[in-house]
Structures
1.
Amino acid sequence: MNQVTSRRAVVRVPSGPGSIETVDAPVAEPGPAEIRVKIAAAAVNPVDLAVTAGVFHRLGMVHQPHWTGLGWDFAGTVEAAGPGVELPVGSRVAGFLDGFDRDHGSHAEHLLVPAAYVAVVQDAVDLVAAATVPLNATTAAQAVDLLGEAPTRSRRLLVTGAAGALGAYVAVLAQDRGWQVTGLARAADEPFVRGLGVDFATGLGQGWDAVADAAALQEPALRAVRDGGRFVGVQPAARLPEERGITGEVIIAHPDGPLLAGLLARVAAGELPARIHAVVPLDEAADAYRAMAQGGVRGRIVLVP
Ligand SMILES: NC(=O)c1ccc[n+]([C@@H]2O[C@H](COP(=O)([O-])OP(=O)(O)OC[C@H]3O[C@@H](n4cnc5c(N)ncnc54)[C@H](OP(=O)(O)O)[C@@H]3O)[C@@H](O)[C@H]2O)c1
């Protein structure tokens, strides 16, 4: 019998979007606690651009003999479930796969993933929209956990990149913890940012009680924090100087199905955005990555197999 195969986007020698190719690989059966998802949609994120550019290869974090699989975010349907999985075959799910050293990813027709990584997608949310949510909403929730509750007398939080995928979620979720949020974004993003229920700025200013740096501005954003304030960054590999009694943390997102379930429910309720910039066939992944790399994209570019 012929082995069933499935397409996936990979890089062998990463050197930007031009190095992306689509390969066929065998469809594997899920092991204990795993599911196989038939991918319906998979968003392209900045981390995918970095993998494709070889950033993590140069850091010595990738040791794949043949190719490196691309893609973190996904939404799709459970096609097979391993021993111990309660999620029924046919369930509509979304999730993200973390880690860099892997030969597979979500920019593919199928994905094997721990069942604990995914959450069921409400009927009201289509799978293309759902695919834009998992990585950035989860990261935002985990970043807001690092920020913690706003102190009663010093609640002014600046979120940089508030018009971006991550920053918009941070801006909404931080309000739940008592922060008085201002979103930093481009001038043209003002209506969107104010629509998140927050104040708006186009410059960093200074003296913030806390900064959540979702635009990865780094040192300038750190300088905008008042003495003794808080800073949450998004670039795990980049160390920031410790200064002026500022509590600095860097978020490293990790998949969390139950957390994602709550976030998807808020998307379904219209409380969190799920923005789609464009839908592109998987075979045109290189074009999607190029468009993403140009910047100025609002909402995610979503690949469909
Ligand atoms: N550590 C983790 O676990 C983790 C997880 C998720 C994301 N991240 C990182 O978080 C960052 C944001 O990701 P994302 O998906 O939200 O990216 P995104 O959607 O591209 O959002 C970034 C936003 O920041 C804006 N921006 C950049 N510089 C600005 C400036 N000087 N003034 C105003 N706005 C500015 C961008 O506007 P323009 O497009 O106009 O430049 C864009 O709207 C990325 O670096 C990503 O790698 C880290």
2.
Amino acid sequence: MPEGDTVWNTARVLQRALAGARLTGSDFRVPQLAATDLTGWTVRESASRGKHLLLRLAATDAAPWTLHSHLRMDGAWRAYAPGERWTARPAHLIRVVLRSPAAVAVGYHLHELALVPTADEESLVGHLGPDLLGPDWDADEAVHRLAADPDRTIGEALLDQRNLAGVGNLYKCEVLFLRGVSPWTPVGAVPDLPGTVALAQRLLAANRGRWTQSTTGVLRRGGTSYVYGRRAQPCRRCGTSIRKEELGERVTYWCPACQPGVELPPNGQDRPR
Ligand SMILES: [Zn+2]
């Protein structure tokens, strides 16, 4: 699942494939950019901000522009050698192709694809909280933003990119398991909010540079998480059956024994807010 670490890795792939290159062609397959041609533009750098990708370009008139994209649940960028077959995803999912002499970057099922002056990047990502994997990561600011809404559940607050940028559902579930905190705990009642934020940052940082997301240290299939994606399987610590319920707009996984503090009936009805 594309979370901050996946987006960071993707930015690095694009950096290695395209940075410094002069584009020899572009093919946008989204209505809002269908008439855009980046031929002759130079790729300055590729960066991530939370779950947003920023490909910074220099136009032929030297004005700096940014191609913004968001992977959400299912988007991806791949870099291919010229002439290599594009096999990562079906062709109908292609949203953009950027060609350079040494590499072809193909964006699949991208969301929020937009070309804006780099000076206006803040209009796209300025609302984000501190970026867990950014050079300007600010743990104190992230804690401050989380704590500003003490009645909200920690499960929802960690996913709100305005508080801190980069945590998705997988890391949310795993961090709260590792801290022994129920996802329904109000932010104001989380015993050690700075510790929770610090752990989230460490987990994401540990997965930079590899595509397998693991919070257990185990990279083999089926062993990479404690609770995420493990509904009805035994908790790796206590053997209790892992639960899955809706929380806000997303589902959450947790171990009711290791993460106490919320009483949910077996059928999930009448759950606390
Ligand atoms: Zn457990």
